[in-house]
Amino acid sequence: MTEHTELDSFVRAFREAAPYIHYLRDKTIVLAISSHVIAAETFQALAQDISLLGSLGIKVVVVHGVRKYINDLMQESHATLPSYQGRRITNEKTLVKVKQACGEVRFDLEAALSVGLSNSPQYGTRNRLVSGNFISAKPLGVIDGVDMGYTGTIRRIDFTLIKQLLQHNCMVLVSPIGHSLSGKTFSLSMDEVAAEVAIGLRAEKLVFINEEAGIIDADGALVRNLSANEAAAFFEAVPQQKAIKRLLPSTLRALQQGVKRVQYIGAHTEGSLFSELFTKNGSGTSFAQHAFVHIRQAISDDIPDIMRMIQPLEDQGVLVHRSHDYLENHIDEFSILEHDEQVYGCVALKRFQGSNMGELACLVVSPDAQEGGYGELLLEHVQKQARSAKLKTLFCLSTHTGEWFSERGFQDATLAQIPLERQRQYHQDGRGSHVYLLPL
Ligand code: 1C4
């Protein structure tokens, strides 16, 4: 690769990442890390990336798993680990192993996350990582006649303390273990702890970092985005990904209780965490309560995004010039297409007094998101809007994109076929655009 193309790809990547970094600054993300990932050699690189998140102003809570460490300890002492309904049954002997394992994971994590950030102005400075007795727990009790022993569930989480620590730029480490008010210790499930912490902190994201890259469909392809409903149906159809399937109840609960995104990523691909957080396509599977792409009414706050998208096209003569004032006064005519909270397109529907025709105008999809069907979605949206406003015909004017409209059912038309008010503007702007009509 030449120096020039390396620079180009760096600049492109940086431009793509910048809005996501800006968006996540001061927001909280909860990282739930499987113990298999922590035990792997590749963890050091991931730990460096986690440290970097803190330095970008993102508030990070790490919840760790412990399963692999417990299994290894049990194997060493040739003991078996009974379970019921997918939860470990914890007797007194097992509890000793759980505590031992939790201590070991915690120290491994503390060591990995204490490494200074190399190649950065912060080299030599260390993350401030704090762990503590954040969770009060209670026993799970007897289920179907099976006494679950010291296997517990969450009673309360000290969110005030966690928030104070985050406010003081500390990274918070939460173990899947809790204590009762009578001083007993209970073993908890990592995914339940991670989900409840994310819900209570109103986290922006809950990221499960596993050995597997994400959800794989029947053809072996990575599924990038799923809504909560799609996820529930999908897991029915994909029984083979057992480890990941265990995370589904916590995933759905977190989404239902207001966590905006739950993400599953694989730890063994270099940079997977950054790629998931800071690029449009991500590296794993992302879950949202509702569909990822949606089109909504524009508001004044969208004007900077609209101007960012339309200005280069105005300069090329593709779109008519629209000033900030014009957009302020006509914002009600505009709709915005968002993917994962980022604006990627806009369109306007203009009405004309006394006419049953509407103009589809200012249709743009940002260059980095074109040819993904967003243009088509915006067109469908405007058609729907026009129909519900009882309009009979949609028209548009175009200098460069006529073919795109023709392929979608628009017919070539003459100026005389559009409302008089628009004909007058046409003569004033002197653009000589072509006219297209779509009967509704
Ligand atoms: N001509 C023909 N086909 C095109 C095309 C073009 N200019 N641009 C993309 N396509 C094809 C692609 O090749 C692809 O084809 P394929 O692979 O499916 O065979 C297909 O379209 C992709 O479809 P999509 O649904 O994924 O489309 P998106 O890329 O998401 O969006 C846009 C399509 C045209 C919206 C997008 O390419 C874009 O933003 N282009 C730049 C802006 C643009 O041309 N907008 C249309 C303006 S006409 C103006 C105004 O200001 O109100 C001017 C008024 C006047 O007086 O002149 C409008 C309406 O805004 N009018």
TrEMBL record:
Keyword Acyltransferase part of the UniProt annotation: yes
Pfam families: AA_kinase, Acetyltransf_7
Catalytic activity, EC: 2.3.1.1
Reaction it catalyzes: L-glutamate + acetyl-CoA = N-acetyl-L-glutamate + CoA + H(+)
EC top class, as a word: transferase
Range of residues in the leader sequence: none
Keyword Acyltransferase part of the UniProt annotation: yes
Cited Gene3D superfamilies: 3.40.630.30, Acetylglutamate kinase-like
Gene Ontology molecular function terms on file: acyltransferase activity
Record domain N-acetyltransferase: where: 293-440
Pathway of action: Amino-acid biosynthesis; L-arginine biosynthesis; N(2)-acetyl-L-ornithine from L-glutamate: step 1/4
Location in the cell: Cytoplasm
Main location: cytoplasm
Keywords: Acyltransferase, Amino-acid biosynthesis, Arginine biosynthesis, Cytoplasm, Transferase
Entries under SUPFAM superfamilies matching the protein: Acyl-CoA N-acyltransferases (Nat) (SSF55729), Carbamate kinase-like (SSF53633)
InterPro entries: AceGlu_kinase-like_sf, Acyl_CoA_acyltransferase, Asp/Glu/Uridylate_kinase, GNAT_dom, NH2A_AcTrfase
Note: In bacteria which possess the bifunctional enzyme ornithine acetyltransferase/N-acetylglutamate synthase (ArgJ), ArgA fulfills an anaplerotic role.
UniProt-listed PANTHER family: AMINO-ACID ACETYLTRANSFERASE, AMINO-ACID ACETYLTRANSFERASE NAGS1, CHLOROPLASTIC-RELATED
UniProt similarity note: Belongs to the acetyltransferase family. ArgA subfamily.
Name of the featured protein: Amino-acid acetyltransferase
